[in-house]
Amino acid sequence: MALIGVFDSGVGGLSILDEALRQLPQHDYIYLADSANAPYGEKSSDWIAQRSLVLCRHLADKGCDAIVIACNTATAEAIKQIREQLSIPIIGVEPGIKPAAMQSQNHIVGVLATEATLKSDKFNALLATLPSDCRFIKQAGAGLVPLIESGKADGQETLELLAKHLEPIQDAGADTIVLGCTHYPFLRKAIRKLLGESITLIDTSDAVVRQLKRQLDALKPSSASPEFGSVLLLSSKNENLLLSMAQDLMSADLASHSVEAQILGEVR
């Protein structure tokens, strides 16, 4: 049994934790939401890199065997530095533009992500490796993360803002949309309401957790362990709100796990 850290700027990484609890329920988890500073996508590259390193080091100091950076923006801006500084496996997330290019029937793919992700060297280097016959419509989802953070993923305000962001993607005729921020899988219902069931939605939660499993298997062989591990939720803003949102947004049976929520103290 391992202790796994999952770090995100806010509640978006709960989509990764949800999948991890589905595939690997026997492990213990610390989920760290830096909601006091969300969204990261509107902050400077230097700030994101420094803050992400500090928080991942905090998780490593708590004894985590591996850390998932469940934030596309933090992955793009900070994962190289974090891997250089920490000696445990660090698993990142990135928009699933490669599988989207392979699955699109008309070779027109929308990418809904934060401004920081879309401008990052990591994202654009990945984009440059893909076939030139696939057209990518890049769209920053400005304002969506704060709405999701405030529990309004299914609200009318979110639906109206989302419709504006999806308009260029829809006008281009995209048949596939990449959910390029871990917050955005919680908008699936709203996207389906706006665009219908035929649009293909791509997120990488499953692939990220499979990579985590490979890293853990290489780290230590599986051994006898409880069926369900513990989950500690840490928030830099409001631990009770984080717990409430985890219960609302996640499909995993949290009642099967020992769950505790705490406020994140000052970290340096």
Description:
With 268 residues, this protein is an alpha/beta fold. The chain has two domains: 3-92 and 205-263, 3-Layer(aba) Sandwich (Rossmann fold); 97-202, Rossmann fold, CATH 3.40.50.1860. The protein has helices at residues 14-23, 45-61, 72-85, 97-103, 115-119, 121-128, 144-149, 156-171, 188-195, 205-219, 239-249; strands spanning 3-8, 28-33, 66-69, 90-91, 108-113, 135-140, 176-179, 200-202, 230-235, 258-263. The strands form two sheets. The chain has a six-stranded parallel sheet with strand order 4-3-1-2-9-10, with helices on both faces. The chain has a four-stranded parallel sheet with strand order 6-5-7-8, sandwiched between helices. It is globular. It starts with a strand and ends in a 5-residue tail after the last strand.
Q: What percent of residues adopt helix (DSSP H or I)?
A: 40-55%
Radius of gyration: 18 Å
Quaternary state reads single chain
The CATH architecture of the largest domain is: 3-Layer(aba) Sandwich
**Main sheet overview:** 6 strands, parallel
Strand content: 15-25%
Mean of residue pLDDT values = 94
Overall tally of structural domains: 2
The arrangement of helices and strands along the chain is EHEHEHEHEHHEHHEHEHEHE
CATH class membership of the largest domain: Alpha Beta
Structural class: alpha/beta
- Are there runs of 5+ residues with pLDDT below 50, and where? none
Pfam family, one: Asp_Glu_race
InterPro entries: Asp/Glu/hydantoin_racemase, Asp/Glu_race, Asp/Glu_racemase_AS_1, Asp/Glu_racemase_AS_2, Glu_race
Family: Belongs to the aspartate/glutamate racemases family.
Binding site for substrate: 8-9, 40-41, 72-73, 182-183
